[in-house]
Design a protein that fits this description.
By secondary structure, this protein is mostly helical. The chain is about 80% helix and about 0% strand. The longest helix has 26 residues. The radius of gyration is 21 Å and the shape is elongated.
Length: about 160
């Protein structure tokens, strides 16, 4: 019988904690710090693994919501129009990539890259109201997304909300 993912992660945490960390020289403070960081990340992954697909789906949905809002509220010159067209393609592809974790991550990454390209294009040739709208909409979106991220990591003491 092969161990499940949680058992495998626990095994790595034990190896780092009980074998590697105690054998690091006392003056290897950076190495000790990095091992502690790895252990912490592995423990967080273990705690969040079951909820991760839903969280990542939420991240994609938020990216798509932002993309839709930006698409509806921005106009400009040739670069902006091209970036808007690329954003429309990224939105469409994200909707057809599938529901698997890799597809969700790829869709989110593609949408965010297209948004980044739109921001750069809008800085070049979007009209002033569009640039103001773009900034306000991104800040509003990121404020909401940051709250979700803070809630996601709150159980681990990173934030006191």
């Amino acid at each position: 019988m092969s161990p499940d993912i949680d058992e495998r992660l626990a095994s790595v945490v034990r190896a780092l904690s009980e074998v590697i960390l105690p054998h690091l020289p006392p003056d290897a403070s950076l190495a000790q710090e990095q091992v502690h960081l790895c252990i912490g990340h592995l423990q967080i992954i273990r705690a969040q693994i079951d909820e991760a697909p839903a969280f990542e789906r939420g991240e994609l949905e938020d990216a798509l919501t932002l993309a839709e809002a930006l698409s509806a509220g921005i106009s400009g010159g040739e670069q902006t129009r091209k970036a808007l067209a690329a954003l429309a393609v990224a939105r469409s592809e994200a909707a057809t990539l599938g529901e698997g974790p890799s597809a969700v991550r790829a869709g989110r990454q593609n949408v965010l890259q297209a948004i980044d390209a739109l921001v750069k294009a809008a800085a070049c040739d979007a009209d002033a109201p569009s640039r103001a709208y773009l900034s306000a909409e991104i800040l509003r979106h990121e404020s909401e997304r940051t709250l979700k991220d803070r809630q996601w990591f709150a159980p681990f003491g990173f934030d006191t909300l």
